[in-house]
Amino acid sequence: MKDEQIDALAKILKSMSHPIRLKILCLLQNRELSVGDIRNQVETTNANISQHLNILRAQGIIEFRKEANFIYNRITDRRILDMITKMQKLFCPDHKE
Amino acid sequence: MKDEQIDALAKILKSMSHPIRLKILCLLQNRELSVGDIRNQVETTNANISQHLNILRAQGIIEFRKEANFIYNRITDRRILDMITKMQKLFCPDHKE
DNA sequence: CAGGTATTAAATTAAATGCTAAAATAATTT
DNA sequence: AAATTATTTTAGCATTTAATTTAATACCTG
Question: Which helix (H) or strand (E) holds B34?
Answer without folding.
Answer: strand B33-34
